[in-house]
Amino acid sequence: MKAAPAPTGPYGLMAEFDRPDDLVEATRRAYEHGYRMMEAYTPFPVDGLAEALGFRHNRIGAVVLIGGVAGGLGGFFMQWFSAVIHYPVDIGGRPFNSWPAFIPITFEMTVLFAALAAVVGMLGLNGLPRPHHPVFNVPRFALASRNRFFLCLQARDPLFDAEGTFRFLEESQPKAISVVPF
Amino acid sequence: MSVSTNMIAEGELRLRLDRFQWWALAAGGLGLFLSLAAWSLWPEQFWPSYLVAYVFWVGLALGCMGLTMLHHLVGGSWGLVVRRPMESGGMTLLPLALLFVPLALGLSQLYPWARPEEVAHDPQLQHKSLYLNVGFYLVRTVGYFVIWLVFASVLNRLSSDQDRRADHRPSGKLQWLSGPGLVLLFLTGTFSAIDWLMSLEPHWSSTIYGCLVIVGEALATLAMMIAVVVFLSADQPMAEATTPDRLNDLGNLMLTFTILWAYMSFMQYLIIWCGNLPEEIPWYLRRTRGGWQWVALALSLFHFFLPFFVLLFRESKRQSRLIVQVAILVLAMHWVDLIWLVVPASSDPASPRIPWVELPLSLVAMLGIGGLCTAFFIGHLKGRPLIPLNDPHLNEVIEHAGGLGQR
Question: Could you tell me if A17 and A23 are in contact, meaning their C-beta atoms sit under 8 angstroms apart?
Answer without folding.
Answer: yes
